[in-house]
Amino acid sequence: MNSKSTRQQKGSSWVMSTFDDVEVFASTSHTESRVKKRQRQTVDLARLGKKRHQQFQCGTDLWVDRYAPLSREDLAVHKKKVQEVESWLVESMSGMKDRKFLLLTGPSGCGKSATLKVLSREAKLNLIEWINPTTAPYKSHFMDQENTWIPGDTVRPVSQTTQFWEFLMRTSKYSSVCVQGRGGGNLVCVEDLPNVFTRDPSSLHNMLREYTKRSNSSPVVFIVTDSTQQSSSAKHLLPPDLQQELSFVNIVFNPIASGLMVKALSRVVSLEGSRTTTPLPTKDALTSLANTSGGDVRSAINALQFATKKDVYGLEELFTESSTSRQGKKSVSRSKSNSRTLSNKSGSSQSGVDRTENQVAIGGKDGSLFLFRALGKVLYCKRNKEKGITEPLPKHLHTQERPPLQENPENIYDKTSMGAASFSLFLHQNCLAFFSDIESVAEAVTHLTHGDVLMAEWLDRQVLEDYAASVTVRGMMHANENMSSGGGWRPFLRPQWYSVIKESQQNTCLLKSEHRMEPLTSEELTTVLAPMKAKILQGKKKGNTSPTFRIGLFSEVQRQTRCERLDELDVNTSIVEEEEQERLGAAGGGSNLHTLSTPQQFNTQDSLSDPEEDFRIDDSDEENT
Amino acid sequence: MSLWVDKHRPKELGKLDYHLEQAGHLKKLVECGDFPHLLVYGPPGAGKKTRIMCLLRELYGPGVERLRIEHQNFQTPSKKKLEIITLASNYHLEVNPSDVGFYDRVVVQELIKTCASTQQLDTTGQRHFKVVVLTEVDKLTKDAQHALRRTMEKYMATCRLVLCANSTSKVIPAIRSRCLGLRVPAPTVETIAQILQCVCKKEGLSLPSELATRIAEKSNRNLRRAILMCEACKVHQYPFSSNQEIITPDWEVFLQDTASKVVEEQSPKRLLEVRERIYELLTHCIPPEVIFKGLLREMVKFCDGEVKCEVTRLAAYHEHRLHLGSKAIYHIEAFIASFMALYKKFLEENMSKMF
């Protein structure tokens, strides 16, 4: 035992020194240094290496980290938000009830973590952050090589969930050893949630319930970035009812306003300027960068650092788009759309196309839209009224004339990250509230059918999907003639179609299995036999719940609509999955009776509809816009 | 307790109630000892299946009525496992290949192959062939139908096919020409009324002839439907009175209400209500085609000559599109919306004519 421990010590010290050596030797050309000289040389070279190391750091350190805000004055976040968070901190530290959990949400780079860090530092709290451990799986061959087994040297495989729970417990019980001297309590910050929970949030929920039961546990702050992935969205991880149950306080951060962003950027630039002699970017350049960044301060600073690598003179052009598009931008900024994504696609469809080609060189933001916004863009169908009709049509088509669209329909669809079929289902579910007269509804829905027919064949769906979406969206917008007057807010609902079809398929299966011995086609079964049989047996068996009764009879009570409201930040994964299932079902036909498919999917006569017809509509639409 | 439809189903060719001449032909066919493949077609509820079962009984005796349910498993070339439920007796096999959708080709080929490649075990006094009954042949994909054609020829020695379809228009000509076509027309209203009387007599009930005729008229010449309706009427009210209410399926009433809602008001708001009702119908497994037909039948009642024509055209157009597309609700709704627009215009014109 004794010899083992000494060996271990020796080993560890040896490893340390070699490591240093290697670094030093690698950095210099003195690879063949003598062992005798080593002592002195190491000191020398170590100093040298340190210096180098510093320089090295200066070059690669990200400005985001180096110039991270130190006080609340440095924060780019709006003062009120900071105060909100601060008051929560104060309340929770004073032991107020129901102040155990805080949830910070918002888009990426809007200063959620930075605010928390700064505030906890100012309040002298120990901010303990959970970082997902990189657990190496237990490898037995280590032991084989060494042929000895040192206790405590192996990694005991522990599940992430357990580790997370232990972390929570530890932080609530003990104050940190490293940061002694600071008097304040612990504050746990969870930004990097263990991945297990994205798959199965319920285990997290149970853990949190357990956690609240413990007294004197430290407050926990969750930071969740809005995302288009359902599994990592706040709504999925911490659903509203749980938030209610555990009295979460949710503070929503907004994208950083351009003025504040410029301020933050200038701070970074001035700090950098005091350190180096390289010329600094101008104020204008910073402003245009702030505009393009879409409220993401992190990406803006990164872009700035990247851009200044080369030189600062051409900076402004890097951040702005080409000159033609700037004109467009000006016109838009008049109409008070400060969001970058908006102005990116404003104007008529043609200039919209131009502009998407001239993407910002550096620091442009990912323009993907949340479903909610995309639906709104199509259904509210904003047109540039003041421009008037730019492309007049011949006399007989006067009724089809429309002012140019503010948005390019294809762009809206492109940015939804959603299949055409589901997008059109969403449109279908929600369109009726936006029309005032039945004629335009008829027109709009007809376009939906065109889109559907285009997508019917799964072989060509890959190719035709975009066209179908284009036909649907354009048709919908074209038909919506009187909408631009506005008319208040309307809720968006999730489409019912999939649930309806699922239920109908299940019912058919049930009926079929009940009437297995009867030689019937499914149509006869559902339209004749089941309803009549239900009628006949109605009186005899009270309270019978066999499928025949459920399906054959219509209850007087109107089925309550199972529409789920669509949230602003809702994402579409669930419906996409359903669509996939349907697709698989269509391709797979239905291996068993559970995936019985609607007959029209397998219809044998499958000539595609006249494609020209669809394109004609498309064309005339384009002329209008 | 079995329903009247099943209880009073004729089991022998000699006991059929109508199309007696055809029954006689079938009898002769069996007496000859052998027959070609058959394609039995006709509207639903005309007695196709009854006739087929009678024929089989004539061929093999009462043994064909001892049916058992079998689960058969298949594997597609793409290694997908399929399961299909078949009804079989010792002498025949009955299957609805359209149950597996798209992979019906595999089922058609494999099933018939396994069935036909084994000889009849007990050949004494039996036929030298087995019978495979395929239902809903008109729902088969083109692929499956072509596969069927080949299979038919190949296993002619050991197996006869009886195909059952609603219409031959979706059966490829190659199959039609390989089969002996056997059309089973729907029974006339008078025949249905007679049969209803017969059934009631067997049940020991007295049915007024007016009621029998009314039920027969309401049944769309679908005998199954007529007998079911008759039984439902009996449950509802007995003794019968000649002017009692005839029970119709709930969904029909629901659909009629829906149509009158459409006629009542033409606005996007109303369309939203109607959409809910259509969803309701769809969840009750009513096929979209039937919804189309039902809506049209009701809507046409409210229209004038020329508008009638236009409405029918719209319905036909949208139903066609439905078959090309995949999401039925779009097409039904497009039809309703176009009808609303048309009907509104029609009403407005009438109003302006009046003043």
UniProtKB/TrEMBL annotation, chain A:
Residues 592-608 have a biased composition (Polar residues). The keyword Nucleotide-binding applies. GO terms for biological process: DNA damage checkpoint signaling; DNA repair; mitotic DNA replication checkpoint signaling. Residues 324-357, 580-625 are annotated as: Disordered. Keywords: ATP-binding, Cell cycle, DNA damage, Nucleotide-binding, Nucleus. Transmembrane segments: none annotated. One of its GO terms (molecular function) is DNA clamp loader activity. It is found in: Nucleus. Its main location: nucleus. Residues 609-625 have a biased composition (Acidic residues). Residues 334-346 have a biased composition (Low complexity). GO terms for cellular component: nucleus. Belongs to the rad17/RAD24 family. This is Cell cycle checkpoint protein RAD17.
Automatic annotation (TrEMBL), chain B:
It comes from the Eukaryota. One of its GO terms (molecular function) is DNA binding. Coiled coil: none annotated. It is found in: Nucleus. Keywords: DNA replication, Nucleus. GO terms for biological process: DNA repair; DNA strand elongation involved in DNA replication. Pfam families: DNA_pol3_delta2, RCF1-5-like_lid, RFC_C. Transmembrane segments: none annotated. Subunit of the replication factor C (RFC) complex which acts during elongation of primed DNA templates by DNA polymerases delta and epsilon, and is necessary for ATP-dependent loading of proliferating cell nuclear antigen (PCNA) onto primed DNA. Belongs to the activator 1 small subunits family. This is Replication factor C subunit 3. It comes from Petrolisthes manimaculis. The lineage of its organism: Eukaryota, Metazoa, Ecdysozoa, Arthropoda, Crustacea.
